[in-house]
Amino acid sequence: MMQEVKSQLEKKGMTRRQFLRYAGAAAALLGLSEAFIPQIAEALAQAAAGKPPVIWLQGQNCTGCSISFLNSNYPEVAEVILDKLSVRYHPNVMAASGGLATGVLDDTLAKLADQFVLVLEGPIPTKENGRYCTFGVKNGKDVTYEEWVNELAPKAAAIIANGNCASYGGIPAANASVTGTTPVSGIIPKDKPLINVGGCPSNPDWIIGTVLAYLTDKKNLLANLDSFKRPKLFFGETIHENCPRRGAFDAGLFLEDWNDVNPDFELCMFKKGCKGPVTYADCPTRRWNSKVNWCVGVNAPCHGCAEPTFYEALSPLYEPLPNVNMIGLTPAVDTIGWVAAGATAVGVGAHYLAKQLGKKPEAGEE
Amino acid sequence: MAQRITIDPVTRIEGHLRIDVEIDGGKVVDAWSTGTMFRGIEMLLKGKHPWDAQQVTERICGVCPLVHGTASSYALDDALKVSLPDNARLIRNLMLGSNFLQSHILHFYHLSALDYIDIAAVTKYTGSDPGLVAVKDKITALVQANDAYPFLPRYESLDYLSDPALVTTLVSHYIQALDMRKKAQEMIAIFYGRMPSFVGTIPGGVTQPPSISNIAAMQSRLAELETWVNNVYLQDVLAVAEAYKALANGVGYAGGNFLAYGGFDLDAAGKEKFLPRGIILNGDITSVKPFDEKLITESVIHSWYKNGTDGLQPANGKTDPEVTDYDPANKYSFLKAPRYDGKPMEVGPLSRMLVKKPQILLDLVTKYGITQPGLVARHGARAIEASLIAAEMNNWLAQLKPGAPIWDKRDIPESSTGRGLVEGPRGALGHWIDIKDKRIDNYQAVVPTTWNASPRDKNGVRGPIEQSMIGIPVPDPDNPINVVRNVRSFDPCIACAVHVIHPEHNGVKAFRVV
């Protein structure tokens, strides 16, 4: 095996040492200890043999998730992934245009059925026979995004819905009554392996990490999705649980006026509408843009952009969460988002109300 | 005999664009530009809390969210009668400037460069620069592994740059540019939290105060970016322009009408702007005329909306959908056709630089004898603008005052209207908001690519991209490389351009543009 790995890497102009460095970065991305590095290196090398083809389509999208992908926190991992994948179709990257471009889709369907990974960025408009999004012309007729997805999805090895709107409908879904916006899960065959990577946009680590997990241990990845089909690896805990400003929340120190920002003690954004208590994502630790910052880091509330309920059900974005009086369930990834979310907010509410009333919360309320 | 070709999708742009051209005698004789995707972002804002507007509208576009968030903040400021603190104005300028840098770099290297270079020439590099040898080895390995996606397939052309040393250098800059644009995004994360979908601007100001440490974090990245823009990006554009000087005059000329709203306020009232406001008509760049908002109207005769709403002012909201089959003689785009005093107007870096007239641009115009600036001039203007903005950002950074206010707190009024007119990487952008009962009653955006990529108007006059296609050389209709070079020189963003249309009349009161 080692010999095989070595020859594959050499073909790609990569030394064993370089490859181990990539594997090390990959372990860091996935939050694994250094002990896993050899295992990841081995798995990646094995995966390289196949070099899965990737078809990346865009629908009712804004291209934000593609731009976010370019901002990878771990460029060496992105590089190794791109070396291990054959990105045949990506509208913003590929040299080809027009029939030359859509010809790649037809060619992939004909030659690589059940082998390619389908990445979908943007949901599917289904009203007016799909005419709200078309690309390519066949036999003199515009081809709708819906038609492309219907043609490609049944023959994909797996499908990744990239970003909140492909996964759950997102912002365009707030206008679904007009365009018939449908998330990927609503249109593809039910038995097709689907991974929803939410976020508006998706964090590049989430996408790269999901592809990495797919390449190294597909079975394990698919076994560890929550009921919204998102990887628990990245969406397993709430923002609130891991927020570095949790201390301010516990102390009842809430930001009221942006001119009162104190760099020595960062205030909690709950009263400015923070949706961190109901949002499952690892932003506080993973952060964004090469770990430079994240939303709460600039005294802004989390808007809950990784949740299936974003945007419409989380509006108004700058008003405190409702349901703080709700009592009930233990929050868990697998319970329904906004309701469970309200449940998570129980602890929040107790603290918040207690502080508002000038009392200390009772022990065990948390 | 004339031949009709369709290019759909036009890739390496933002969004879904179709271009049809008619070719006769090796040249384009007619053209049609079609936006093929629709979401309807403003419709969903009706009834929402006004503070949501900038978070929703910045998602109109993932490449240039800054300009939408900024226009929206100014529209809200106007409606709330905000007196914007200097720190907030400067931080908004700095963040928007950072987005210009990332967008312009991305546009030249990652969206456009493959139209000009023969990437296979890299394998013939014979020099010994270790960095370039690494690039050569990488590309050679891909070619040998018979897997050159996504660089192939492509339109073939005889005039691709093929000098191995030059091409290898440009490809290495393509890779460097990935990192540079990423640093520009990091600058936005410093004050605005993250990119895309930033969170740091709010009605009345910004959320993150300047401090010694975040100013320093900006300075170090800006210094690196400014050096790179001047020494690499600008030089590469000048080198490519020199190589393609045959295309420098007249090719891609959109008719000579240029519009700039102006952007980057230099004083609290926004009277003086770093990029000035103005109008140029009929190619007379010696005469910059004042801009009058009342002269903007939109035509829908060739757009997928009912004809009864033709000729209204932009934010009128009276639009009924009429989605028919593609028919260039009748209706063929989701884009409307905005006109200024009845004329199609080009917007973007070329318009702004012709209004501002920096010396370096005038020198190039003289050097290449450009009387009709088009395809090549657009790339030049974009690079020159990036250089000017990077330099000016140092001044804005120096003016930040840690400890001074960043926010002017205002309550939402029962009813009010506001508007924000700014410049984004792709051109002039306007947002309008109408507040009733403390909620959004109507929201409208009129965006750059709607101007540039518009279809014909009621008089049958072509939009700027359509007009710019006339005369484009297409020696081989199977490989219309100059057509896609030209359309990409506008840096079109179709998600921006199409979101603005109301597909149904929802009884919203008409805006009065004042």
Portion in helices of chain A? 25-40%
Strand content of chain B: 5-15%
**C-alpha Rg of chain B, in Å?**
23 Å
* SSE order of chain B, one letter for each helix or strand: EEEHHHHHHEEHEEEEEEHHHEEEHHHH
Termini of chain A, distance in Å? 52 Å
**CATH domain fold name of chain B:** Cytochrome-c3 Hydrogenase, chain B
- Contiguous low-pLDDT stretches of chain A (5 residues minimum) are 324-366
User: Taking Cα atoms only, what radius of gyration of chain A do you get, to the nearest Å?
Assistant: 22 Å
Mean pLDDT of chain A: 83
Per CATH, which architecture of chain B? Orthogonal Bundle
Roughly what fraction of the amino acids of chain A lie in strands?
5-15%
Number of strands of chain A: 9
Q: What is the CATH T-level topology of the domain at 53-72 and 88-203 in chain A?
A: Rossmann fold
Greatest interface and its residue counts?
A-B, 84 and 87 residues
Number of strands of chain B: 14
- What best-fitting shape of chain A do the alpha-carbon axes yield? globular
Q: Residue-averaged pLDDT of chain B, rounded?
A: 91
Query: What is the number of helical segments of chain B per DSSP (H or I, 4+ residues)?
Result: 14
H-E order of chain A? HHHEHHEHEEEEHEHHEEHHHHHH
